[in-house]
RUN and SH3 domain containing 1 (Xiphophorus couchianus), 204 residues
Amino acid sequence: MGEDVEHSVRGLGLTSLCMQEKKLVSGVSAAVEAILAQFSSSRTIVQKALSGDSAINPSLGRLVLQCLCPALHNLLTDGLKPHQSDLIAGRRPNSAWSLVQATTRTPKTQALFNLQIRVGELPQLRHSKQRFNAFLLGLLTKLLDFWLSHLQSCSVLEACYHPTSFMRLSLTTCWPLFEELLLVLQPLSLLTFNLDLLFQHHHL
């Protein structure tokens, strides 16, 4: 069954099968361009640094939460199975936040694990999507592309995603789109962000 699905996926080709996935990457690209436009209006290094501080420039915080976070949420929940079976916990719901928890437990992801724990301990964030958004705010301290690359390499992909999901296809047919996604996000790593993890709670 799995081989038949993989064969049909390869047979369809990038053009027909990855059109929806291409739209998901384009959504992220549009959000990144909007964020870069915010920074480009700053002329000095100091101004650029202050532009990335959500306490000084709340419009940037809103832009990240209303554009980048939804675009990445759509991409990472594309083809996500509604539930996952666990030998200990049994059947439990899948979400973008559960992906975060499942992919930040190894020693090589200590910085990601620390951020996940910080977000998880914030009582103001009661819903998984709020926690996912806060995690993304924290990742904009130059960890976003690292987490996405790590996520792609994790063994949980098969358990969490359907074969036609963006993340599963990024391993085979739609690999170029995943590379494009990383290139799209790369300019953000050159900017200085200081985003309040509770920005959504305080401002939205």
User: Anything to note?
Assistant: The beta strands are 83-86, 90-93. The CA atoms of residues 29 and 60 lie 16 Å apart.
